[in-house]
Amino acid sequence: MTLPVLFASRPASRRRLLKLAALTLLVALLLLAATIGWAGHGWLASADAPRPFDGFRQVRLKTIQTQLDQVRGPYIVVMGDSHAERLFLASFCGLPVVNAGLSGAVLGDVLDLARKITPPRKAEAVLLSVGTNDIWVKRDPETTKGESSFRAGLETLKQRLSAAWSDHRALIAIPPVASKEEALFPRSAATRYSSFLAASCEPRRCVYADIFAGAESAVEPHSAFSDGIHLRDYASFVRAGEPELCRSLGLPAAE
User: What pLDDT, on a 0 to 100 scale, did the predictor assign at position 216?
Assistant: First the structure.
């Protein structure tokens, strides 16, 4: 009489065993995911971790290289961070302009770009705008380490630009930001790092241009910025300083 009960209990026992096996597998998978996640977190925090804009950077490098390959005759290059990339100049000193700006770039990223891209021939001049991302407070700019790293990077970049890109360059002072953003991009750091840019210029080959000097009143209104950090109209400042820059670079002044 107990035989039917025995056979009836076997499916229930199998179900319990299957549930136990599934639970054991789930726990093992969760432990594995946690381990991988922790290892991944450590890798992302390491110096070898990819920058957040690496995918964008690869596309941008190819775009810049392609545009350089299409240039015929003398030309000018604009290089640097997002201030450079957002600058629209169809021409400068009467020459066509290739924009090699890279949003989000620190000085090291600009150096990396200058190494990975090969212009078909040297430009008449390079206009360089860099430093804003280097003075971001999270990067501890106003420390001996931060300042030394920036100055050393400028020297290395100068050598690369002189060897492969141009015999002449203009270094643009770090642009101002809206007053509400100065806690993140302190004006004191911008002034000091701009002085490093000026000090890196050698006579007859380089010119330092503080095209934003005295422009606080012109850029202080919120409407002058697209987001508090980037100006809406970089070209107007560059155009205002263009005649002097062209003369200093030994190039014909724009008509």
Answer: 56
Long-range contacts of 59-62 (CB under 8 A, 24+ apart): 60/102, 61/113, 61/116, 61/117
| Coil, strand or helix at 28 | helix
pTM over 0.90: no
> Which value, in Å, is the radius of gyration of the alpha carbons in the chain?
28
Query: What does the alpha-carbon distance between residue 20 and residue 89 come to, in Å, rounded to a whole number?
Result: 68
| pLDDT of the residue at 235 | 95
User: Domain boundaries in the chain?
Assistant: 1-49, 54-248
The domain made up of 54-248 has a fold known as Rossmann fold (3.40.50)
Residue showing tokens 């620190």: 106
For residue 92, give every residue at least 6 positions away whose Cβ sits within 8 Å of its Cβ, in sequence order, or none. Answer: 76, 78, 127, 238, 242, 246, 254
- The first and second tokens of residue 158, run together, are 């100068």
Record the tokens describing residue 63, joined without a space.
């775009």
